[in-house]
Amino acid sequence: MKKIIQVLLASILVFGTVISPSFINAKAIIYNTETVWKISSKKKTGTSTGPWRNGPSGKGPATLNINQSKTKDINVTSSISGSFPIGKKAIGSSLNITIGESKTYGTSYSVNIPSGKKYQIIYRPVYNVYTVKQRKYYRTGGITEATNTYSTATVKSFNHWEYSWKKI
User: Fold this and answer.
1) Where is this region: Disordered (predicted)?
2) Domains of the chain with CATH codes
């Protein structure tokens, strides 16, 4: 027994390691590092308007109305600009909107036209503007580590119609 211990100690000194029988059958674990983007903040930063659209026109004396059933040009599309590596679907989902899809929104407005005058209703979309900041992360195995790399996207989401009229 003493001889076995001496041989074992000598091999540790010469080779510097002992291989355990349980380690011989161990499998190597290899983790890939992947890039992950997450929304770090989103903030309403203001409003903006789209171009004026022409609605119905009429001659007075009368009341001129605009409503969803008679107006053809009432579709609006939410948009995104800037950098959005997380994807427009993820950003839209975080704001409860669908970016890039045309949607129809109702309209309702009326104006009294004086006798002998001709008016036309005009209207335009008003958008909420959001700034969405995204942060880059590295994930290796079960560990996720934040980087100091950010991307910023600006989203315009329909809020309401703005109405006016013009003399024609």
Assistant:
1) 42-64
2) 27-167 (2.170.15)
